[in-house]
Amino acid sequence: MKLAYSPTSPYVRKVMVLLHETGQLDDVTLSDIATTPMDPAAALLPQNPLGKVPALERAEGPALYDSRVICAFLDDRAKAGLYGSGARHWDIRTLEATADGILDAALLMVYEGRLRAESERSADWVEAQWSKVARGIAALNTRWISHLSGSLDMGQIAVGCALGYVDFRHGARGWRKGNDALASWYEAFDSRPSMQATAPPQQ
Prior knowledge:
Elements: E1 2-5, H1 10-22, E2 29-32, E3 55-58, E4 61-65, H2 67-78, H3 86-115, H4 123-142, H5 145-148, H6 154-170, H7 180-189, H8 193-197
Parallel strand pairs: 1-2
Antiparallel strand pairs: 1-3, 3-4
Helix pairs in contact: 1-2, 1-6, 3-4, 3-6, 4-7
């Protein structure tokens, strides 16, 4: 298999953490691709017409894209059970969706500063996106904290990668304030070898 990859993408990081945790890292070749919404990489488009990483080429069918699709595929391939079953399955799916929603908003904040001309940027838009991040983090700290304390699953991986990205790009916002339980959980989760091995390069 071949993974279209960027070391700073939090969506790619989800896939990479899963690969580490399930012992599949050696089954995948990484292809480092630089792409943005304004300038999608031509080499990526045959795998993902949306021009986004990650995308996973596989021998048995068309390339898979969207981190949730790829993670579910790799979890099934490894029979790792990271998506659980029964009611827990839907909790995990919702937790992953919450984490990805945090990522979506945090990434839009970055794009607003990097891809728009200064005269076109909207401080109100940025703050509206941060409100989504803050509400999502608050929900993780209260509604989901007991789930996060259970055995490893895909929801936890997604949350760990989301919080890592908020630290990476928006650390000055101080998400830990008022979210003590989540901050403690993340400190422990971030020490996992899979998280340490996939930390984005500082740039």
